[in-house]
Structures are given as structure tokens and as C-alpha cells.
């Protein structure tokens, strides 16, 4: 089942987020320490605003994707996608694609015209998924993050929803 998360999913969301950060830290912008330091109230606000969509296996949260609409009025036509994470035990079942499809549907309901995301240039699996879901590379951000002293590049990808 795919659905928007609510404040009631706080503990499951935090747990899966922290698991993802330990299993695949390069897939996330924040470090594990930053995630641990994130106040419950900030996460509850994010969940209550419908900014996170979850994938469930029975009652267990096994994946999520965040969708954040631009804040200033002149940027309200676009939204950022990510992070997207699916627990390794739930991979290869189409859940990442289903989460992205749900994010597109949510964005369309909000009147968003384009979705944008960043993906590590070495994360080929994610790049293939995003391209299969209609995202195109529009740029490269060199040294977008430094992980354990190593500079990593991000690909900038975009999907126009009104094209």
C-alpha cells in the first residue's frame, strides 16, 4: 500500500530514515547525527503537511519519498523530490517506482509543473529508475557534498509534468 504518512507514522518514519542513513549514507543529504538531532516536532510538521509518502508491507513502513513544494510564490510551480528510500528487504518489487508515481500524482494535484531532484553521480541504479520515470539530467553539481572527506558530485534531474 502506498499512502501519505501522518504524524502517527513518526516513529516508523524516523526508524526507516535512520536505517537508510546507516545502510546507504550517500543517498541522503543529512548525516545520521543530523537526523538524530532533528526534533520530533519538525518531523511531525513535515508528516502532517503530507510531504512524505510511504510504502507499506502489511503494517510495516518499508519505503518513503519526500516531496517539497517551492516556498516562495515564484517557485510554487516546482517541487523537490527526495530522499527516496526502500528497505533492502522490500526492493525489486516496484515500490520505488510506485512511490515516484505517487509523488507525481500528489504534485499534479498541487498544480506543480515540474519536479526536480539531485542524485549521486555514482548511484547508477537510482539514475536508471529516475530516467524510467521520465526524469532527464539537466546538469551536474560538482562537489555537491563531501562525505567522509570525499567530494561527491550530484546529477540534477528534472521532469516536466505539463510537457
TrEMBL record:
InterPro entries: Acyl_CoA_acyltransferase, Bact_Acetyltransf, GNAT_dom
Alphabetized UniProt keyword annotations: Acyltransferase, Transferase
Pfam family, one: Acetyltransf_1
UniProt domain N-acetyltransferase: residue ranges: 1-162
Domain of life where this protein originates: Bacteria
PANTHER family: AMINOALKYLPHOSPHONATE N-ACETYLTRANSFERASE-RELATED, AMINOALKYLPHOSPHONATE N-ACETYLTRANSFERASE-RELATED-RELATED
Protein name per UniProt: Acetyltransferase (GNAT) domain-containing protein
Species, as recorded: Shimia sagamensis
